[in-house]
Amino acid sequence: MSIFIVAVVVFSIVVSLQAAYTVYLMIYTWDQPEAYRRAAAPTRFLPPERSFTVLLPARHEEDVIQETIQRAIQINYPPSKVEVVVVCEAGDTGTIAKAEEEIASLRPQGITHARLITFSDRPINKPHGLNVGFAQTRNDVVTIFDAEDEIHPEILNIVNTVMLEDRVNVVQCGVQLMNYDSSWYSTLNVLEYYFWFKSRLHFHAKAGMIPLGGNTVFFTRELVNRLGGWDESNLTEDADMGIRISAMGERVRVVYDDRYVTKEETPPTLGHFVKQRTRWSQGFLQTVKKGNWRELDGFWRQFLALYTLGFPSFQALLATYVPVSVYMMLTTKVPVAWAMILMVPFYFLIAHYIISVVGLYEFASAHKLRPSWKTPLAMLLSYIPYQWVLAFAALRAFLREVRGINNWEKTKHVGAHRLQPTDQQPVAAKGDAGGKFDRAA
After folding, report:
1. What pLDDT is attached to residue 438?
2. CA distance from start to end of the chain
């Protein structure tokens, strides 16, 4: 038997193990009753006690920033306990003008808890903007929303309740892409978020190693001070923050309730999607190189961090598996036992697809959407090309990192998720009359 065939069989076994792990993570909360219970939002809200700083870092977001400011100031929480702060680089005159116009329009209505902060020093990126905004704000819990976010009105009530009841310093709430039918890749992109926030992050939180999401994550100010703020050289400052928090032994509470997710959009073009994934993959590589994962307690957590952060790079290698497999199917004879091993990843691929289709209809039902009967077929046809795009982005990230290119490639936002025919009315928690507060029993 040739060394090539042996290598392919070994690689097939590795891919099978990875695929089995992926399937397990996709169904984790459904398979773990306790995890599923903890994922839900509180059924009753405690009276407002924590005060919140809402940071809205924005760059070239003229098309969406005004509505996002509106969403932020309409949050159902005492205005005296909320400050909404838009953070812009001084040269971004378009976004600044739109933000100033919206904030000025709120003053006659007696709304004074929204303001704009600008900065002119480098680097011009999101983590630097967060550090600037953090230094000029005061409230005891800090959260981040992106400039295009649909923020649920009850989100601060949820986090206030969770922080008081669970005594945690970090709460990660759900983020959900919505425009599942706007492009050939959007359905799979939407489902990635769905399974990541609804299932996988709960596994990571329990394991004590969690790469946090980029927004709708809440930190106590004291914890951010202990961490020294966000790493301004890292393209995935959120994942880096999660690794450092995990290394400190801090518990992270993850909440994903379909009713209260922050709604976002998939990147509007394939080019923007590739740039976004390149940034994420490169940021993960930077976090690996930085080495804070070595401070995690125990070999298992360290291995989990290295695997999670290194997976995008492994994904580039995975892209070669399909053409090699097809070539071998047509040209190579191997013993039956070996052929069966080579087929195992295909079975997991089928399982992944079936779970994804089920997830699609659960997501659609939760948000009152109606996918076409063609949508599962489109998912099937686009699955492999989608993986190739992710692999290309991972390879591009590796080359950028090797060449020392670290600029922030902006993802354009057009507000496509705001065109979805969803019910945008606030939804009260079960047993909560119109968002009233009550002491939990």
Report:
1. 44
2. 68
Contact between 182 and 267 under an 8 Å Cβ cutoff? The reply is: no
How far is the C-alpha of 380 from the C-alpha of 393, rounded, in Å? 21
Residue type, 96: I
32-60: average pLDDT: 93
Fill in the amino acid letter for 100: E
Cβ neighbours for 98, distance < 8 A, ≥ 6 positions apart = 61, 62, 65, 66
Beta bridge mates, 196: none
- Six-digit token pair at 109? 């209505």
Domain ranges of the chain: 1-414
Question: Which of 133-142, 273-282, 335-344 has the least mean pLDDT?
Answer: 335-344
Structure tokens at 437: 């507060």
**Peptide bond before 426: cis, by omega within 30 degrees of 0?**
no
Query: Of all helices (H) and strands (E), which one includes residue 86?
Result: strand 82-89
Q: Give the ranges where 291-373 is alpha helix by DSSP (H).
A: 299-318, 321-331, 336-366
What H or E segment, with its residue span, contains residue 10? Answer: helix 3-26
- Give the H or E element holding residue 94: helix 93-106
Give CA angle at 426 (422, 430), nearest 5°: 110
Residues pairing with 218 in the sheet: 143, 171
Give the number of other CB atoms < 10 A from CB of residue 185.
18
Amino acid sitting at position 148: E
- State residue 409's pLDDT score: 81
Report residue 120 CA to chain centroid gap.
Answer: 28
CATH homologous superfamily of domain 1-414?
Spore Coat Polysaccharide Biosynthesis Protein SpsA; Chain A (3.90.550.10)
- Say which amino acid occupies 244: R
Residue 234 and residue 284 in contact, taking contact as beta carbons nearer than 8 Å: no
- Residues present in the chain in total: 441
Give residue-wise pLDDT tens across range 21-35.
999 999 999 988 888
Dump the DSSP string for 119-163: E-SSP-SHHHHHHHHHHT---SEEEE--TT-B--TTHHHHHHHHH
The pLDDT value given to residue 166: 95
Residues 6+ apart with CB under 8 A from 131: 229, 230, 232
Dihedrals φ, ψ of 258, to 5°? -50, -30
What pLDDT does 100 receive? 97
Burial of 109 (0-12, 13-18, 19+ CB in 10 A): exposed
Beta bridge partners of 175: 262
